[in-house]
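Problem 12. The chain below contains 281 residues. Write out its predicted structure in token notation.
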Amino acid sequence: MVSLGLVFDQLITGLTIGARLFLIAVGLSLIFGVLDVLNFAHGVLYMIGAYAALWAIGAVSIPFIGLLGIGFWPGLVVAILAAGLVGVLIEAGFIRRVYDREPLDQLLLTFAFVLMLTDVVKTTFGSGSNVVNPPGLLAGSLTLTSSLSLPNYRAFVILMSIVVLAAIFVVLQTTNVGRLVRATSSDRDMAALLGVNVPRLYTVVFFVGAALAGLGGALAVPTRRRRRPWTAAASSRPVAPPSAGRVTSPRPGGPRSSPAARTTTPRPPPPRFWSATPGVA
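Solution.
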């Protein structure tokens, strides 16, 4: 029978993964809905945010720069800015020139950035795995019952996705910037005739979408559990040597024999399926 604690842990793990995927997907949907560009390099921005957070925490170093080591909370800001600025460079320098071209040209352009930025990240940070513990403020777990506990960091990731969802809804529905974004996504030419600076608005929207991907990557950094280290005490445990034969046990009801008095029975030789005489099976 499956325990309730196992079901609850799997539920929280699924919600945490879904919260990070939501941060990636909402940025991609925002870019596609406003700019009408399917950014194939959006996953690379997620990776850049994760490695920027690792560099800010001090888990990886950049050649000729070294470690940053400013902690997890400033690392979130570094990841958001790094992914957002890379997104601005991609949009302002390249994607802006293919807005009026075929979607296949946009896909090929963004896929080229997937290949290039992936190799840049591998060259800069390496391809090994990195494990980071959650920050001290979010370490531990909240005990709900005797068998149920909610990890603080996973609850923070889920809460962060809810806050981002509420913030995006409020901005798009109630602010002047949201009205401009909705108007531009409906009719770009009409918005430009009404005085909206469409290229600048596109750059802002692309920065926000890329920053959300970077935030999702930064939040994914401490969610991997660290394995228990191999200690010297565990490796120094005595291991019984293999015996040369089978140890005979005392007969039921008889006197218990000491280990020195026990005799061993040698193992029988394996059966021979061939003969030394040629031609005889």
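Discussion. The radius of gyration is 31 Å. Students who got a different answer should revisit the alignment rule from Section 12.3.
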